[in-house]
Design brief:
The chain is of the alpha/beta class. It is about 35% helix and about 15% strand. It has 13 helices and eight strands. It has an eight-stranded mixed beta sheet. Helix 4 crosses helix 5. The protein is globular.
């Protein structure tokens, strides 16, 4: 939940939503005409000593099965600057995405990590939790790594990259899983650096829901270590591979870190735009270009695909009153599902 002192850094509508108790929202979705007949198959909690989260979907919406039977399993990491929001806020977005996958003939499971929030829990807590959850999905749920897509928006995208670097180069502060990397990576307006501020921080300052002060405060609450590589015992270089993805020190071997395919998006009107465009250009040069796709949302802001499911009350009401499989609203979320099906079949 967003703290009162950060509210002035948020778009007011986002503040209201991020501060809203999740139970009311999930009840509205699960009791809707669209989902009430299958609500017993949706939104199942997992609570363990090393992580917690929710299975939003397990194989299909109408017949719950073990995720190991699914054609694709999405491991979703929510945004919120590491200090606010929660998986419940992504329930409708995830269900719309799942419907798009199911409508195209693939079965899908979606697990959303409920990672600990700053400032009470700082780095590397979240990295330890995401590594433990990935191990749980692979070892205990017996999901084949090649069928897993790690996906995240904003800070969740940052955490997704932290996980992938950890799988390649284990961080001593997180579980050493010794597991293969996943099959794909989806990044929605990812945060790629705790401190870098590109020109789009200024040019898009008045068109995005995020602000530079919000991002700075979020970074300070999440990471309390050194900001630069000073060559001392408390050198940032030992943290850099897991936190800094634009100019990591030492450089990251993206060929070894990234999965078979990567899809990233950023709104042309958001403050992260320049960073996301720069990063995708970097990895396109290191990998085969057709393995990395960058989608620019013309006239779009930060994580617009998710925001449409929470900001447009009229569209949400119409969608929830409809029937599964009718297509309906929230086409941006559906496009991500369609893209995932294309990648899994290619």
């Amino acid at each position: 939940m967003a703290s009162p002192q950060t509210n002035e850094l948020f778009n007011p509508a986002i503040t209201r939503f991020a501060s809203r108790p999740s139970q009311k929202y999930t009840d509205a979705v699960l009791s809707s005409p669209r989902y009430r007949s299958c609500r017993e198959n949706i939104y199942h909690p997992v609570s363990r000593s090393d992580f917690s989260g929710y299975w939003f979907v397990q194989d299909t919406l109408t017949n719950r099965k073990p995720p190991s039977t699914s054609d694709v399993t999405i491991f979703y990491l929510h945004g919120g600057g590491y200090f606010c929001s929660q998986p419940a806020h992504y329930l409708l977005f995830s269900l719309r995405l799942a419907e798009a996958v199911l409508d195209r003939g693939l079965t899908v499971s979606i697990f959303a990590l409920d990672y600990s929030l700053a400032p009470e829990h700082q780095y590397p807590t979240q990295l330890a939790e995401v590594a433990a959850a990935y191990e749980y999905i692979v070892r205990e749920e017996q999901v084949t790594p090649g069928k897993i897509i790690v996906a995240g928006d904003s800070a969740g995208g940052h955490l997704a990259l932290s996980l992938l670097v950890h799988l390649n180069k284990p961080n001593p502060s997180a579980p050493h899983t010794n597991l293969p990397k996943p099959g794909g990576l989806v990044l929605l307006s990812p945060s790629l650096s705790l401190y870098h501020e590109p020109p789009s921080y200024v040019s898009n300052a008045h068109t995005d829901i995020l602000s530079a002060p919000f991002v700075r405060r979020a970074a300070a609450q999440f990471f309390n270590g050194p900001r630069k590589s000073l060559g001392g015992a408390n050198d940032f270089s030992k943290y850099s591979p897991y936190l800094e993805f634009l100019n990591p020190d030492p450089p990251t071997d993206w060929e070894s870190v990234l999965p078979l395919w990567v899809w990233a998006s950023a709104g042309a009107d958001e403050i992260f735009f320049d960073d996301v465009e720069t990063w995708t250009t970097i990895v396109q040069k290191e990998l085969q270009e057709d393995r990395v796709t960058f989608e620019m949302g013309t006239g779009k802001e930060h994580v617009w695909q998710y925001l449409e499911t929470m900001m447009d009350a009229g569209q949400r009401k119409k969608f929830l009153e409809g029937k599964m499989g009718d297509g309906g609203a929230f086409g941006e979320a559906a496009k991500i599902g369609e893209m995932i099906v294309e990648r899994m079949r290619s």
